[in-house]
Amino acid sequence: MAKVREACRLASPMRIVAVAITCALVLATTATAAVAAGTPNPCSPRNQGKVFQDWGDDNNYFAMPNGGFEEGSDDWWLYGNARVVWGNEPFDVGGWADMRSLRLSGWAMAESRTICVGVGEDSVRLFVKNPRVDGASLHIDATVRNPDTGRVATTGFDIDAAAAPYGWAPTVPLRIPNLLGSDGGQQELTLRFTTGGTPATWYIDDVYVDPWKLR
Ligand SMILES: [Ca+2]
Predict the structure, then answer these.
(1) Residue 94 alpha carbon to ligand 1 centre in Å
(2) Ligand 1 being an ion, which residues bring their Cβ within 5 A of it?
(3) What is the CA(99)–ligand 1 centre distance, in A?
(4) CA dihedral of residues 36, 81, 141, 4 (deg, nearest 10)
(5) How far is the C-alpha of 205 from the C-alpha of 202, rounded, in Å?
(6) Per-domain residue ranges for the chain?
(7) CA distances, 141 to each of 16, 32, 34, 67 (Å)
(8) 135-158 residue pLDDT tens
(9) For 97-113, how does the pLDDT look when each residue is reduced to its tens digit (9 = 90+)?
(10) Cα separation of 25 and 33, whole Å?
(11) CATH class of 2-9+19-38+70-141+156-214
């Protein structure tokens, strides 16, 4: 299987960016087991909102299925010490009544339900609570699969706990790979979160996708 690894470029810096992220892109020429999380949710119209407006980002976003973990572990596959727990991110961008988030403690992994994304739906943004433990990291994989060609690509992002302040903050927009043809079409997106390095306790909440085409 041919693979290409190269540095990838993040979106334009936002006014407030508290979560530092490094990333790498891996392209695979054939499908792998990386995209396997349930029946893909369709590209039907989805509720949108300017949920990151307070951070200088006026784009509209739609939530990943159960992206706020208010339905417990529905639409997520949890491994190791991954648990949905009481306590929301403090900005309540999903609504004042929200009260849950995902805790990743020690070794833990969480994988989202696969969703369909179309042209321009090219980035993901979420809230992370940094444990501020030296040597701890949170790895995020954004994997896409083109159902027509079977090609798969993954962009991997690493959040270094020592490089960001303690506490809840939005990530920068995380660019997902583009395996769409010149005539557009659709691709399938799956997100995976994995703890790494020094054992620590991370939290994530309110996972969103930027539907650029509908802005
Ligand atoms: Ca929540």
Answers:
(1) 7
(2) 68, 88, 98, 100, 205
(3) 5
(4) -90
(5) 10
(6) 2-9+19-38+70-141+156-214
(7) 23, 14, 10, 16
(8) 999 999 999 998 888 899 999 999
(9) 999 999 999 999 999 99
(10) 17
(11) mainly beta
